[in-house]
Automatic annotation (TrEMBL):
The gene is holB. GO terms for biological process: DNA-templated DNA replication. Residues 268-296 are annotated as: Disordered. Pfam families: DNA_pol3_delta2. It comes from Arthrobacter globiformis (strain ATCC 8010 / DSM 20124 / JCM 1332 / NBRC 12137 / NCIMB 8907 / NRRL B-2979 / 168). This is DNA polymerase III delta' subunit. Residues 284-296 have a biased composition (Basic and acidic residues).
Amino acid sequence: MTVWDDLQGQPAVVAQLRQASMGEGLTHAWLFTGPPGSGRSNAAKAFAAALNCDQDDVTVRGCGTCPACLTILGETHADVSFVRTEKVTITIEEARELVATAGNRPSSARWRIIVVEDADRMAERTTNVLLKAIEEPTPRTIWMLCAPSPADVLVTIRSRCRAVALRLPPAADVAALLVNRDGVDPALAERAARAAQSHVGIARRLARDAEARERRLETVRFPLGLRGITAAVMMADKLVKIATEEATSSNEERDAAEKAALLATLGAPETGTLPPAMRSQVKQLEDDQKRRAKRSITDSLDRTLTDLLSFYRDVLIIQLGNAVELVNVELRSELEEFAQRSGPDVTLARMDAINNARKRITTTNVAPLLAVESMAASLIQ
């Protein structure tokens, strides 16, 4: 096993990063771009591990087994910082903390590395805080920014970064990764990779969680019974509930573990009232968790609508002559029957309605249920 194993299906990217880790073409700032599920953050993490790998032989750096590789992959290395936000944006205060961290020389590794996984979630004013640090970097510091596309980062930033462009790997490569690394049954791995549309993280969740597979199938089947405004309102309510339940189930255990860890760190008494100083820190944690819950529900609803979009994508493929493989192969007969009721122009209009709802939910303060109800009304047969 090496640090590059998670980048299955990205041979050009692996070659570029391995060459840089050996000192050829290494620069102080990198911009990793690609669609969700392409492995932007995994590529940055693998690159960080290869740069600080304990191996003396540059040709085998990124071994995946030395202490440096293991701690970086586990995100516990003292000289490698991973920055991701579970709020709507990265704040200017967080950006200033990054700049301060980047100014410190590495304590034990070759490089101090700052990995910003949500570079597209910074406002222009916040990004400008990073500009000088990236323009005039501290010696032995490397910045790695991740975003869906170069256009999501200010031109003044991306012009100072070396680009690493990733693509979604083929579903067969994702399935092979699930089989080889996670021990998933090959048939289930193939089904999960296809349903996830090659998004590695979602494919792993679908392969491991039968309830997640059932929720997705329920979502994809919704259009089959969408007749009349009552059905549209009911569908919207159910879609929002599915997304909320999925987000809540993944947050509850994490929230409880975080609170228990904080109380243990503070030395809180097992019973009785907490001292005021401790109560304020617990309150801050709870406020952060509430903000994260809102973001996770938004992200979960976006994934749910992406699953719904795959239904109409398959309908369009059938209407255009089955030129490529369907995502929802198990529903082929129902999809073919549905495709006969309209033409490609109607299907494209429905896909636009879903994408518009996704945009409104993720970029505005509109109530999710209202956005989904409006979308559902436009999908009525």
